[in-house]
Design goal:
Organism: Chitinophaga arvensicola
Structural class: alpha/beta
GO molecular function, one term: ATP hydrolysis activity
InterPro entries: AAA+_ATPase, ABC_transporter-like_ATP-bd, ABC_transporter-like_CS, ABC_Transporter_VariousFunc, P-loop_NTPase
Bound molecules: adenosine-5'-triphosphate
Order of helices and strands: EEEHEEHEHHHEHEEE
Radius of gyration: 17 Å
Protein name: ABC-2 type transport system ATP-binding protein
Number of strands: 10
Keywords: ATP-binding, Nucleotide-binding, Transport
CATH architecture: 3-Layer(aba) Sandwich
Strand order of the largest sheet: 6-7-8-3-9-10
Number of domains: 1
Length: 213
């Protein structure tokens, strides 16, 4: 089996006393994965755990040797996450956030400028996020997910709220970045368009565990 892009070992996540995830072992080779599960099954929790954004028990390895425990900074640089319902401090502009991400995550500013124009973010990037519609917020969060040099990008419900033009751009980006070696895990209650992306496998979250098909 090729080197996994992400490997989970004995990962457990509780909210207060309630156990939400209990994953003994999961290894994913590079690819594009559709993460499925019923409402409340734990998909968003799983993504936040994978991205190192919330505390959990156990360990996650990226690219076989970057550990969530031993190399937390390097770990977070290799993984990007776009929230289902992004929320940013209202007084910031899209440009403030973009500059912060480019400063902390790095990556090619020209490439991000090009994506911004394709998604139409450049039109409103100088306005405070408090003035954005839900679709504009979503486009900004998707743009931020392509900053840096990630090995894995987690997209939580990326298909909802964006217009059809932005959706076509997003599918192009997923294909383009995947061809460059970037893996994706995507949650969606709607099927991903099989003509736009070839899914490597489906991941099912159920009974606190994740299975790969
Ligand atoms: N901050 C929190 N504190 C306590 N419980 C939480 C918190 N966030 C999520 N939960 C609980 O964890 C479980 C999993 O929630 P999660 O948001 O991960 O599900 P999901 O699969 O993404 O659902 P959906 O498809 O509805 O978005 C749910 O029972 C939810 O109530």
């Amino acid at each position: 089996m090729p080197e996994p892009v992400i490997a989970l070992r004995e990962v457990k996540k509780n909210y207060q006393d309630v156990n939400i995830l209990d994953i003994a072992r999961l290894e994913l080779p590079a690819g594009i994965y559709w993460l499925q599960g019923e409402n409340g099954a734990g998909k968003t929790t799983c993504m936040k755990v994978m991205a190192g954004l919330i505390p959990f028990k156990g360990e996650i390895l990226l690219q076989d040797n970057v550990s969530s425990r031993q190399h937390p900074v390097q770990f977070r640089r290799l993984i990007n996450y776009a929230e289902a319902e992004p929320f940013y401090p209202s007084f910031l502009t899209g440009r403030d956030l973009l500059e912060l991400y480019l400063r902390t995550k790095g990556g090619d500013p020209e490439q991000i400028r090009a994506i911004s124009e394709k998604l139409g973010v450049h039109v409103f990037v100088n306005n405070p996020v408090s003035s954005y519609s839900s679709g504009m917020l979503k486009k900004l969060s998707l743009l931020l997910a392509f900053t840096g040099n990630p090995a894995l990008i987690l997209l939580d419900e990326p298909l909802i709220t964006i217009d059809t033009r932005a959706l076509a751009v997003l599918y192009d980006l997923i294909r383009e970045y995947n061809a460059k070696g970037v893996s994706f895990i995507i949650t969606s209650h709607q099927p991903l368009d099989a003509e736009e992306v070839t899914i490597t496998g489906t991941l099912k979250v159920a009974h606190k565990n994740i299975t790969l098909n």
